[in-house]
TrEMBL record:
SUPFAM superfamilies: Fibronectin type III, Immunoglobulin. CDD domains: FN3 (cd00063), Ig_Titin_like (cd05748). InterPro entries: FN3_dom, FN3_sf, Ig-like_dom, Ig-like_dom_sf, Ig-like_fold, Ig_I-set, Ig_sub, Ig_sub2. This is Titin. It comes from Oryzias latipes. Keywords: Immunoglobulin domain, Repeat. The keyword Nucleotide-binding does not apply. Residues 136-231, 233-325, 428-521, 527-617, 619-715 form the Fibronectin type-III domain. The lineage of its organism: Eukaryota, Metazoa, Chordata, Craniata, Vertebrata.
């Protein structure tokens, strides 16, 4: 901190001695007093919060940093500013996160990211512990089912509510009842053996956790269960296939086997025109085909699990129409995200797709919507549920859209894989353009390749050769733009250039230029803009103009200015040396004459056409002195060309000393109403300049041009004799004769 303060003092002293503007003081101060965003540890705070459920939590974090830090609150990957439930209040010195009516779901970590462009961003972790009842238990299952007994097992709650789980409450209800009965409220483990159940009643069970703050949500069984020694019912019974005389069913095994091994599954069937159920089939696996059915019959099916104690309850499905089951032809593209495959040039393209369909579909392949035929380079292979195509030694032309066609005579489906070949870019797009030609250098440009080879263009290489030689020389191998200036050429020598594009997979073929001679090919520039006169005094004017729109291919070296008065036919050059700026002061003008000006530019090729002629401007001082003494100057001026539609009431006169930047209003005992005024209380020997403004009922008008400088001094001698009036004869030659004036 001491070192930074010393730096500030040194820079402030420098600003003072060099008379820098006060804005610079502020800039330097701000620059040297930037501070990295961080916690303000001088202000009491905490990052660990504990709250009872239902309360509102306000997380207050004091901050420091210059400029003021930017603040982002996150929970996980989610920006909390987008959630209307939370309120975030930010100031330059702090941030506050408000969480209303907290629940157990709000406990966990919150992340505050702060940054202000100085140093690295910082992340502050805030922990919130909510004191609440536990969340629901997880994965409640039933096992070890026997006559009148079973065992319940579950996982502890994910959220304990800020206090350890003390016990679990286990409840049951008959499937025909609405109310649950408590079995035990003092279970200490995550399993419980239930006894005393009736065999002919199916039961639901539920478990809830309890801590010091209350009882949590319940976790319930989804299906009722009977406590018998027979198995539970099979689950997830579905039809997987059918034909004109059979139906294939599939299921998953029961949740419990009744304490003994399931010996078989029994499938019964019943047509809609039948009253009784009959045996359809038996099997030992969880899938079975029931054959011998009548075509187009509507049949219900039910499935039992059987062990040594008897049958389970049944699971039923139907009615199912006995007919050929149509499975639309489908292919899985999961191994090809977005249906895309990228292959390096030279490697094999291999596309393998699992498929299904009933009837079994016919398989064919297309590329870019044209049939793809097998050859020495292209091979097909098909199994019961997969088909593939392989293209050996991929080239650029093998990129494109490969399509698998599955056709089962009823439905035809198409599955596309877009293959990209990765390799060097294609040749840059020409022709190579010569944007600037000089004796020692040439600027060339070109366009990007049409094909980037599947990878971003990293750079270009530029080579050159003299047309009288066969060998190429590398100029630069790391050109990142599509334009380049080739230096160190020999004047008058004929060259050829070539460009290659490069990506991470290789280098393209070269693009060659036409032959070009290294020599200047400039043109004179275009005409400059029409000049405009301003800052007009009795003996001078300043003009300014715009640069030519075309520089002729060579930088503008400077400008030339010509003048003429309104009564003259001839233009007279003003400058003796070339003018480097687009602004010039013309002096030694004759007061009372009107002048116009024109400008032309110059480059290495020569002079431009002249600009348009400026408007005529009258060389007259808006404010002039009629009498000067050692401490006063008497001034006069002319009325404004326009009074603004309102009578001019007063004039405001201002003065400024030589080398001063500040204008001072001339004091007067009474308002100035005449076109002259004597300025007093001046310092002898000092030089002053003046300007005047007119005022009417609508306000004060703009200031006049600044007068020339007047020095305060007493007259040193009597005036000289008046000059003799001379009448001169001006002869102007024209193409028809002589004009006399």
């Amino acid at each position: 901190m001491l070192k930074k303060q010393t730096s500030i003092n040194v820079v402030m002293r420098y600003c003072y001695h060099t008379k820098l503007h006060s804005v610079n003081y502020l800039f330097v101060f701000n620059f040297l007093t930037t501070e990295e965003a961080d916690l303000d540890l001088d202000v009491p705070m905490t990052t660990q919060y504990v709250a009872r459920a239902g309360r509102t939590v306000e997380v207050f974090i004091p901050l420091k940093g210059r400029p003021a830090p930017n603040v982002t609150w996150r929970r996980g990957d989610r920006n909390m500013a987008s959630d209307n439930r939370f309120t975030i209040n930010n100031t330059e010195r702090s941030t506050t996160l408000i969480i209303p009516n907290v629940t157990r779901d709000d406990c966990g970590k919150y992340y505050l990211e702060i940054e202000n462009g100085v140093g690295e961003p910082k992340i502050i972790t805030v922990s919130l512990k909510v004191q609440d009842s536990p969340s629901a238990c997880q994965k409640l299952i039933i096992k070890n089912v026997t006559r009148g007994k079973l065992t319940l097992s579950w996982e502890a709650p994910v959220i304990d509510g800020g206090s350890p789980v003390t016990n679990y409450i286990v409840e049951k209800k008959a499937s025909t009842m609405k109310a649950y009965q408590v079995i035990t409220a003092e279970c200490l483990n995550t399993s419980y053996k239930v006894s005393g159940l009736e065999e002919d009643i199916a039961y639901f069970f539920r478990v809830s956790a309890e801590n010091e703050f209350g009882t949590g949500d319940c976790c319930e069984t989804t299906e009722p269960v009977r406590a018998t020694e027979t198995p539970g019912a099979v689950k997830d019974l579905v039809m997987v296939d059918s034909s004109k005389n059979s139906v294939t069913l599939q299921w998953t095994k029961p949740d419990h086997d009744g304490g003994s091994h399931i010996t078989e599954y029994i499938i019964e069937k019943r047509s809609q025109d039948e009253v009784n159920w009959t045996l359809g089939a038996t099997c030992k696996r969880c899938t079975c085909e029931v054959a011998g059915l009548r075509e187009n019959a509507m049949v219900d099916f039910r499935v039992f699990a059987k062990n040594e104690k008897g049958r389970s309850d049944f699971s039923q499905i139907g009615p199912i129409t006995v007919m050929d089951f149509i499975i639309p032809p489908e292919a899985s593209l999961t191994d090809y995200p977005n249906g895309e495959l990228a292959v390096r040039i030279g490697q094999n393209i291999h596309i393998e797709l699992p498929f299904k369909g009933k009837p079994r579909p016919a398989i064919s392949w297309m590329k870019d919507n044209l049939p793809l035929k097998e050859s020495e380079k292209i091979r097909f292979r098909t199994t019961d549920n997969k088909t593939s195509v392989t293209v050996r030694g991929a080239k650029k032309e093998h990129a494109g859209q490969y399509t698998l066609v599955l056709d089962n005579r009823t439905i035809k489906n198409y599955f596309d894989i877009n293959v990209t070949t990765l390799g060097p870019p294609s040749i840059p797009v020409g022709p190579i353009r010569f944007d600037e030609i000089k004796a020692q250098s040439i600027i060339i440009s070109w366009d990007e390749p049409k094909d980037n080879g599947g990878g971003e263009i990293t750079c270009y290489s530029v080579e050159k050769r003299e047309t009288s030689h066969a060998n190429w020389k590398l100029v630069c191998s790391s050109v990142v733009r599509t334009t380049f200036k080739i230096p160190n050429l020999v004047k008058g020598t004929e060259y050829q250039f070539r460009i290659r594009a490069e990506n991470k997979y290789g280098v393209s073929e070269p693009l060659n230029s036409s032959d070009i001679i290294a020599q200047h090919q400039y043109k004179p520039p275009g005409a400059p803009g029409k000049p405009v006169a301003y800052n007009i005094t009795s003996d001078g004017m300043t003009i300014k103009w715009d640069a030519p729109a075309f520089d002729g291919g060579s930088p503008i070296l400077g400008y030339h200015v010509e003048k003429k008065d309104r009564n003259s036919l001839l233009w007279e050059k003003v400058n003796s040396t070339i003018i480097s700026n687009r602004e010039y002061r013309i002096i030694s003008l004759l007061e009372g004459l009107e002048y116009s000006f024109r400008v032309y530019a110059e480059n290495n090729a020569g002079l431009s056409p002249v600009s348009g002629q400026s408007k005529h401007a009258l060389a007259i001082s808006p404010v002039d002195a009629t009498h000067i003494t050692g401490d006063s100057i008497t001034l006069c001026w002319t009325r404004p060309r326009s009074d603004g539609g309102n009578e001019i009431k007063y004039y405001i006169l201002e003065r400024r000393e030589k080398k001063s930047l500040r204008w001072v209003r001339v004091s007067s005992k009474r308002p100035i109403t005449e076109l002259r005024h004597r300025v007093t209380n001046l310092t002898e020997g000092n030089e002053y300049e003046f300007r005047v403004m007119a005022e009417n009922g609508a306000g004060v008008g703009p200031a006049s041009s600044t007068s020339r400088l007047f020095r305060c001094r007493e007259p040193t001698s009597a005036p000289s004799a008046p000059t003799v009036i001379k009448v001169s004869l001006l002869l102007v030659s024209t193409h028809r004769g002589v004009l006399f004036f």
